[in-house]
Write a structure and sequence with these properties.
The structure holds three protein chains of three kinds. Chain A is an alpha/beta fold. Helix content of chain A is about 40%, strand content about 15%. In chain B, strand 11 and strand 12 form a beta hairpin. Chain B starts with a strand and ends in a 21-residue tail after the last helix. The N terminus of chain B is likely disordered. Classes of the chains: A alpha/beta, B alpha/beta, C alpha+beta. Chains in contact: A-B, A-C, B-C. Chains B and C meet through strand 1, helix 4, strand 7, helix 5 and helix 6 of B and helix 8, helix 9, strand 2, strand 4 and helix 12 of C.
Amino acid sequence: MQFGNAKPPMGVVFDCDMGESIDDALALAVLYGLDGKNECRVVAVSTTNPTLASAAFCEVVGRFYAGAVSAQFAASGRTLPVGMATSGIPKMETPMLTAPLSRKGADGAPIYPHGIQKIVDTADPAAVVRNAFTAQHDQNAAMVLAGPAVTLAAALALPGVKDLIARKARYLVAVERGLAAHPASAGTLFAEWPGSIFVVPESMGERYRFPASAIETAFAWSPNHPVVDAFRASGNKDAPAAGVLAALHCVRTDKKYFGASAAGTFDLGTGGKLTLKPSAEGRHHWLEPDPAQSEAVMAAMVELASAKPVVRQRFRPRPVEQQVAPPKPPEAKPAKP
Amino acid sequence: MITRKALPRRMFLRGAGAAIALPALDAMAPALASSRIPGKAPVRMAFVYVPNGIDMRHWTPENEGPLDKLPRILAPLERHKDNITVLSNLTHNNGRALLDGAGDHGRCCGAYLTGVQPRKSVSDIKVGVSCDQIVAQQAGGQTRFASLEVGLEDARQAGDCDSGYSCAYTNNLAWRSETQPLPPILDPRALFERLFGKGVALSPEARAREGKFRRSILDFVTEDTRSLQANLGPTDRRKLDEYLTSIREIEAQIAKAEKDNSQIDPGMAKPYGVPADFAEHFKLMTDMITVAFQADQTRVLTFLVTREGTSRAYREIGIPDGHHPLTHHRNDPAMMEKVAQINTYHVEQFTKWLDKLKAAKEGDSNVLDNSMIVYGAGLSDGNRHTHEDLPTLIAGKGGNHFKTGRRIVYRKETPMSNLFLTMMDRMGVHAEHFGDSTGRVEGLDLA
Amino acid sequence: MGIRVSVAAVFAAAVANAAETGKFEQAVQPVLSKSCAPCHNERMASGGLNLKAFSTPDSIHQYREGWERIVLKIRTGEMPPPGVPRPDPTQAEALMSFVRGEFERADRALKPDPGRVTARRLNRAEYANTIRDLLGVEFQADKDFPSDDSGHGFDNIGDVLTVSPVLMEKYLNAAERIAARAIGGDPMPKPMEVSFELKDKNLRRVGPSAVETTGRLDWDGEYQVIIGMPGERGKDAAPVTLGFWVDGKLVHTMSVETKPSGLVYFNPYSEAEFRIRLTEGEHTYRAGFIGDEFVKTLSEKEVFNNQKNKFLNMIRFIGPQPSKDGHPLRSRVVVCDPETGAACVNRIVATLARKAYRRPVTATEVAKLARFVDLAKAEGLSTDQGIQLAIRAMLVSPHFLFRVERDPDPNDAVKVHQISDIELASRLSYFLWSSMPDEELLKLAETRKLRPALDQQVKRMLADPKAAAFATNFAGQWLEVRNLESVKPDPQKFPDWGPELREAMKTETRMFFESLLRENRPMSDFLNAKYTFLNERLAKHYGIEGVTGPEFRRVELTDGRRGGILTHASVLTVTSYPTRTSPVIRGKYILQNILGAPPPAPPPDVPALDEEAVGNAGSMRQQLEKHRSNPTCASCHSRMDVLGFGLENYDAIGKWRTADGKFPIDVGGTLPNGKSFATPAEMNVLLNAELPDFARCLTEKMLTYALGRGLERYDRRTVDDIQRKLAATGYRFETLLLETVRSLPFQSRRGEISQAKEKPKELAVR
């Protein structure tokens, strides 16, 4: 019998169109940063950009934090298989992907080795998303959708997945830009997703840009960093960070970084323009900036994206002296099983 | 085995249990083809399960596509290279811990043919209906036995079978309902008697009478049970329902047996006792299965070679240590070597069975070509208990339907259930989905 | 084992409010926060435990199992681990007594609930015994039926016993054979010859003048047995006594000449022949010379020289042949002459049905069964064959195959009712005999005199030889001795191992257990009795002098090497690997089956510790110490392994040893609670100090077996009551049995709510 009744950190499923913009790479880095702080677990990564480079880069980032970061990784000693859609949106083999992947060391070996040579080295993304949810405690998971909803729509079409998500997921945080890239699937998503949806408007992404300056400072600790290489290759200037905001809001809801619009139901106009039809029983919201929090947000973005991989202590550390001072007896209510 | 020799007539006639001299197998084939639709050879579906994973380094062929040099464990299959398809990357997500902690052996076996995560309990068992039984229940009607369940290891075990998983999950492959496993037949004699009767040649009249008796007995107990059930609580009623469904199954068998009132003649003496030697036990069981296939007594088979988590030692090939302990080798070369030897030994026995199926002619084809026999395990790495890229191969062309002699690599996380769903199609049972399937697998068929 | 908290949440609320938060804060929290929280916090959740959930009084009731584990760990000293500040004893004691107090309050607050037992199908052992007692037919269910699934460690759990089509088919076939064997109404088959010969490799030599085989005969009946004996001895050689054994039982002896017959000049050969009744099924047949002094005078190569010696090389059976004095079993069933008409037939059927259904039968039931006799006759068969057909029907009827207990209100989960005397009779007989009630029991039940006579009946039943089934089935499964059937020690490493030794091991443990019951010994004997039961083979294995002959007898243990169940070769063998011992398995065995504190499954991603995996450098002990340097493993293994090492003086088949290969054995150890020992005997003494734990463990197991269901939260109360009574009577076995039989769940039951309950998923913590 397993012993103890506390829930593990929330599981986060991450789907993006890696390669379309540096934002996705930063968002993923932020999630791993939060994972390292035990604020969440990255339980699945998939991309809708149907090019091996895209999946390969996701794996590279995963490996950069691998073993150290997520219990799932540590358990198997392998990174999670990266899901990749094979159709839906046109493929984008952009410099932010090719640059880091093609980097070689003095010995001519790639700086960021990865195991994705063929399509079969990637995973069926719908299965990846579904399987990730099956391994989460009820209401202890959430999803960040930085790209189009192609994969999610496919997953929702699988038998039982709607109920599964309703049972496991607290909410979905998506970004407007990604959804708009594939209106059809976005439509399905709004109709089928059983819980609440928060969408980061494009305007907000523009408002909070990830500072290029941080790349030279905050990331300096590491001689090689795939996200840094990608950032430089993608223009090396302040980058709109809608995906990063989505990641932040998803895991740090309690920090109230952002506000949320009144409830409604999203709808995609013919122009692919996202509109929120207000309705009492609606479960969709726009995410709204909160000026009072702007600094905190900027600080968190940088701190988390540049966080070092944490070697998670899976066993009690031997020398007890090094223990942190015992926390005062927690007074919180016990987690209900 | 016992020698049973007839005595000179003047002493007395040979008696019960004696093996009546029989024509050779293939010579009998037409006579055996009792309930078969003329012309169209039936397709058989079989699952051969080996426990504790397989050493994948010696299982997985190097390249995709046409099979070239077979790796060590598959090497015995060299002569059947053109009859097999090796499948890579198939995964059973429901064999994983998900939220249920330890117990991968119990879980992976329970999930294998059901595609459902077994409930972690020692008494309150629940999983799903296995794909072989879905086929048996929907298409089994044409043959005397809707399905056959066999195995080689007596599962008499006291205590938990795997960290809280009931032994039912590891003792059985086939599940006729969410809560009712079908125990495999282990004793060759028992299998013989089930398939071919007690070895006593009854007169047609005697057999007809026996059928009549059995039916009236079954009517009697059915009536009894109904009245007994009348005011019982739900759980008790469920128990007696299982009993009733089994009775109906037997009634169906009797009816079928009566339709063609002829006793199958297996062409072999009735076996006695369980051979200590693994290879001999394997051979005996598969010999009989071959006849059963050929005589079209059944088209669905599950074969639990040994129990998941078994500690059986293989002294036949000089390995005194238990199989399961060996698989937790922590990369000790000596132990890994022994595991590879056991894996290979299993495949050798399997290959010998394929020889027989191949030799069993069926029109201008043969039973092997008309079958699809999955050989595989519920774990890939038995040391770390991994549930992805499960070792899987299909022997046979499923009725000149599969393009064999190849290795097909699927995308990661492709559910094993997708394969089973596809095979069910081949058996004429078209389900929308099965277990945790996400669709059907491609590339199997000739197209 | 077994107490599930499926309904925990329900009363968490109820009792919690009562729990005095103040007391909790002063008695519990200091220890938690000082000694536990540094590791079992949200961040590290060491060993998968995060105390956050255990920080309120409510949690004591809500997460009962968790708290029980916490208390256990503190009590045994497994926690906190070395290096972490230990709570001072008084603090620890305060915590434990407060929590225990809360437990008891909660249990007392529970309404007494007998629970309900699902209709039980007879398992293999029960089926075979019932057939034996009903018809006198020896039926080998274990060879003919698929093995029964077991739950909670026993194979008589109603919930897991199912009826598959294969089994149903076997029931039908078995019924036919059994009925035929009981009445003998079918024409006997033509006799045939079955030969076992050395040259055919289906006969094996056991010693110079004995041969043995395991084979199967298809029919009961008389057989002509012919023993082939090549060779001859000296002119003046004395005759020897030839013996014939079936399954180790001597069934026939005769004298045979060994001196030259003068008839054959080369390849001298003679046969001994006799006629004997044998029964259908697979048996071990042995033929040999008894007390053959002559061979001892011969040299190695003379023994099988047919000029120098007479020996054995063949066993042949010719049969079956009808016996002159009619069918031996028929009269048990055919109590009158059925040819005299329906009245007698009905009487025969009625008498048998009452026994088979273990209850009075109605006239309609009898009539229905009697109809089978007519059916058979209509088909041109004899009356006897008709009776056989009726018997076949009985033997597959649910009334025979299942033990169903009726509820007045099957859907009322609250109303408790006493089970009927008739149902009680079956509960008793299947509990103590694994078989049907006998006439006395059934009569008492029918006349409602059973409950008054309960104690006296239990004692009578224990005295009956049939009670051996209780030892075989209950002890056999609880102590896992049954697994002796499936273990296969490596013949290279353990040449002594063989069927004979295996049987001897089983017998020792069975007889030991029986003697404890029958003589109503205190339970402490169980752990360190200074006597056991041995025959020559086992005594030799134990290195104990002066025990000769195959029969078992009580032997006092003086050498201090043996004493108590943990030193039985049976237990020591089932807790070993084929090639060597396993301190871990043995330690786990003690925790699980003796102390009732099974270690939890390791966390999901840590594969169970497996010494097979550790190389062969260094002694087992060194290897395991290495492993235990991992603190997470240590938290459980510190206790498990120490206990296991306490038994290292016994090799993988229970033989005494002082060295393991080239490494000397080091038995001594110190338990986490600071107590240490230097010899197995001393360890048993330490274990004896845990008698209450052992008694509770045994009580839970016995209750599970007696009821045929897993224990639920509401059974705690019953277990506690029995505990108290045991303590009061010096932990006597008889008390345990009587209290089990008197207990609420054994005496009564209730209905259930009409929907299947889903259990909440456990939280596995990483």
